[in-house]
Design a protein that fits this description.
By secondary structure, the chain is an alpha+beta fold. α1 crosses α14 and α2 packs antiparallel against α12. The longest helix is centred in the C-terminal third of the chain and has 38 residues. It is elongated.
């Protein structure tokens, strides 16, 4: 085997230009496939990050009535939906790949949050437990967070995000000031923000409507004070933090199933459901899959053309080396030895083309990325698979010339000029 490989490299090097031109079809085909796959993967990762948010890995589980989230403000507390206990929360934290879980209550309030004469129209009031900000990767930018004493003694304190602070105080300092939520005074003790801000890439009007986020602003209060401004025994929502983005769907579904197991309502439409952003990402990605598959098949045609070129050049090589083949057979070389030598030469030739094609594809993908500002992600499995596939092309298309060489009559081969 190693001797055949050595002879193959020697033969390729002795006809450098002819070998390169033979490999050109393989190089172009592999390069095109690598560039297409890299662009597809880069676009898919961008879609996933745009929908889910880079580095967040949190999934929300909320109470639904049919296809819509249950509106506590309009419908009231639903019968048969219990408050989520610490025991149930710990059960959810034990789900595989779940790093943390937290409970919160949420209400979009169109006129109940204000400071002096300024109203936070359409803003969200969110009642959070002690683990919420850690679970959702928030940091305190100014002031302080909630303390155990705030929860235990029902302190009416609030944290604002940047949007709500700007809307309510319009550039003035918010810390220490008082806002009113449903006519209840709350003292602003801090400003919070995501530890890693993420802005989706918007390349079109469709992206804008797909990825647009609600920026009305949020006001956070301790969940123990929630009944002061809204309702007692109001069912909470759940946010789950998982180890990786790909774990979000399963963790969300398992969390929803656990919560649904405690429901005792006569209304079958009321269920906990997980916000499956990963599935939304897949649906968007699938829209372009058919086109991408066609592009890969078209690029694959050049591999067939390259394979035919390999078969042609190997037939020429057999003709040129007829006397060499006759001499080897005369001194005892078997058909399998001749067949193996020429198959190895064809496989080495196309494998070299595959390697050069992978390198060219990576360079081409980077050029496309810089020129069109499209994201790319180099696929290692695709690169390895391309080289292996190019080797198989060499074996398949080298079979006929190799078989012809192996079956030459040694006497006639030695006589041929």
């Amino acid at each position: 085997m190693f001797e055949n490989i050595r002879l193959s490299f020697k033969g390729i090097w002795s006809h450098k230009m002819r070998s390169f031109l033979t490999m050109l079809g393989i190089i172009i085909g592999i390069a095109a496939i690598i560039a297409i796959v890299s662009t597809i993967q880069g676009t898919n990762e961008q879609i996933k990050e745009n929908l889910i948010g880079s580095g967040d890995n949190t999934v929300e589980v909320a109470l639904y009535q049919g296809d819509w989230t249950y509106e506590m403000g309009y419908e009231g507390v639903p019968a048969g939906v219990p408050v989520i206990s610490d025991e149930v929360l710990n059960q959810i934290k034990d789900i595989d790949n779940v790093d943390n879980a937290s409970l919160y209550l949420s209400r979009q309030d169109y006129g109940g949050v204000y400071h002096l004469n300024t109203t936070l129209s359409g803003g969200y009031v969110i009642g959070v437990d002690e683990n919420y900000f850690d679970t959702c990767n928030f940091i305190i930018q100014k002031g302080r967070g909630f303390t155990a004493k705030d929860y235990k003694e029902f302190h009416k304190v609030a944290l604002l995000d940047k949007e709500s602070a700007d809307a309510l105080f319009q550039g003035e300092e918010a810390l220490g000031k008082t806002i009113e939520i449903r006519k209840e005074p709350y003292v602003v003790v801090g400003i919070v923000a995501k530890s890693r801000e993420f802005e989706p890439v918007i390349n079109s009007i469709e992206d804008y409507y797909t990825y647009s986020q609600d920026s009305a602003g949020k006001v956070y209060v301790p969940d123990t004070t929630w009944p002061i401004i809204y309702q007692f025994d109001e069912p909470q929502n759940l946010v789950i933090k998982v180890a990786s983005t790909d774990d979000m769907t399963n963790a969300g579904k398992e969390g929803a199933n656990i919560l649904n197991g405690y429901l005792n309502t006569s209304d079958d439409t009321i269920k906990y459901k997980a916000e499956d952003l990963l599935e939304q990402a897949r649906q968007i990605q699938e829209l372009g899959e058919s086109t991408n598959s066609m592009l890969i098949w078209i690029a694959g045609i050049s591999l067939i053309v390259g394979g035919i070129g390999v078969m042609n050049i190997m037939l020429v090589s057999v003709t040129e080396r007829t006397q060499e083949i006759g001499l080897k057979k005369a001194i005892g070389a078997r058909k399998s030895n001749i067949l193996g030598q020429f198959l190895t030469e064809a496989a080495v030739l196309t494998s070299m083309g595959g390697v050069l094609g992978v390198v060219s594809g990576i360079v081409l993908a980077e050029i496309i990325s810089r020129v069109s500002e499209m994201p790319v992600a180099i696929s290692v499995p695709a690169a390895i698979g391309s080289v292996v596939f190019s080797m198989l092309i060499g074996i398949v298309f080298g079979m006929l010339p190799s078989y012809k060489a192996a079956n030459l009559n040694p006497i006639e081969a030695l006589r041929r000029e």
